[in-house]
Amino acid sequence: MSLKAILLGLAAFALFSTHDVIVRYLGATFTPIQILFFTSLMSFPLVTLMLVRDPTHGNLQPVHPWWIALRSLTMAMGGICGFYAVSNLPLAQAYSIFFTVPLAITVLAIPMLGEKVGIHRVLAVIVGLAGVIVVVRPGSAEMGLGHLAAFGAVCSASVQSVIARKIGREERRVVMLLFPLAATFLVMGVGLGFVYEPMSIVDLAAMGAIAILGFLAATCLVGAYTLGEATIVAPMQYSQIIWAMLFGYVLFGETADLQTLVGAAIIISSGLYIVAREAFAGTSDNTPVLRSRTRAFSPGAFRVSDVLRRKPRA
After folding, report:
1. How far is Cα 255 from Cα 253, in angstroms, rounded to an integer?
2. Which of helix, strand or coil describes residue 132?
3. Nearest CA among 185, 234, 168, 217 for reference residue 75
4. Would you give the DSSP letter of residue 309?
C-alpha cells in the first residue's frame, strides 16, 4: 500500500508540474486574471461531478461565513500570485519558495489554532527562512515582483490550510470546495474586462488542460492519502524540484544554479523535520502541516483534505 501511495503522490506532483508548464506558456501572453477566469470556469463541471457524491445533508449556508469568506478571498489572491510567480520566475526558484508553506503554516497555527510550538520546530522554521535567503538573495538585482508573488502564494496557501483545519469538521465539503472556486471565478471575472486579450482555440484548450491537470493531480493525491500515511505522501511534493530542473532546462533554457539548489535543500530539510516532529514526536495537538494536502492556487485542484474521510480531531 505504501508503494502505491508513493507512486500516486509522485504522479500527482508530476501532473502539477506539467500544469505549471502550461501556466508559464500562457503567462507569456495572458495575465493570471485571464488564465484563472477560464481555468475556474472549466473547473466547475469537474468539481461539480465530484460534489454530487457528497452524502452529507444540508444547504450551502456556511457555518462560519467569515472564515469561509477569508478562505475564498485567499484562494483568489493566491491564484493570481501563484500563476504570476510560475510565469515570471525560474521554476526551480518558484518551487523553492512554495516549499516554505509548511513553515508558514507552523507559524500561523500558533495564533489561529492555539498550537504550541517548541524549540525544535522554531529552529526548523529559522533554518527554513535561512534557506529562503539563500534562494532569493535579498538585495540582489534578481529580486523582483515574481518573488513577492511567490511569497504571496505561500501566505495565501498557509491561511487556507489553517482555516481548513480550524473549521473543516463543521463545514460541509461542498461549502469548503465551492465557495473558494466561485470566489476565484467572480473576482477574476470582475478584472477580466480590464486585461482581456483575444485567444486562439489552442490557448483556450491549454486553459482547459490546466483545469484537467489540476483536477487529476488532486484526484491522485486523494488516492495516495487514502492508501498511505501523510508522513509518506507529503514529502512527495519535493519531487517537483526535479521536474522544475528538467522542464526548465528542456523547455525554457533554465539552469538551476548551485545557490538555488542549496537553498531548496535547506528549505526541504526544514519542512521534512517539521512533518517528522508533528507525526512522531507527539509535539502537535493539531498537526496542521500534515493536514495540508495540496497546493492552494490551482482552481481545478480541490483541497484533498476536504474530500478525505474526516477523522476526529486529536
Report:
1. 7
2. helix
3. 185
4. P
**Cα–Cα distance between 15 and 34 in angstroms, integer?**
22
CA distance 5 to 223: 7
Contact indicator for 158, 99 with CB cutoff of 8 Å:
no
C-beta neighbour count of 198 within 10 angstroms = 5
Distance from C-alpha of 89 to C-alpha of 253, rounded to nearest angstrom: 13
Entry pTM = 0.89
Classify 1 as helix, strand or coil: coil
Kindly provide the b/e burial profile for residues 209-225, where b requires at least 16 CB atoms within 10 angstroms of the residue's own CB.
bbbbbbbbbbbbbbbbb
> Is there a contact between 195 and 31 (Cβ–Cβ < 8 Å)?
yes
**Tens digits of per-residue pLDDT, 158-211?**
998 888 888 877 887 778 888 888 889 999 999 999 999 999 999 999 999 999
Closest CA to 173 of 55, 4, 8, 262: 55
Q: Is 230:290 a contact under the CB 8 Å cutoff?
A: yes
Rounded-to-integer distance, Cα 93 and Cα 240, Å = 11
- pLDDT above 60 (res 116): yes
- 246 pLDDT above the threshold of 60: yes
Q: Report residue 311's pLDDT band, with 50, 70 and 90 as the boundaries.
A: very low
The DSSP symbol for 285 reads S
Calpha distance 103→105 (Å, rounded): 5
Sign of CA dihedral 38, 42, 48, 51: negative
Beta-carbon neighbour count of residue 97 at 10 Å? 25
Q: Give Dmax (Cα) for the chain.
A: 55
CA distance 26 to 301: 18
Find where cell 481548513 sits: 164
**How close are the terminal C-alpha atoms of the chain, in Å?**
24
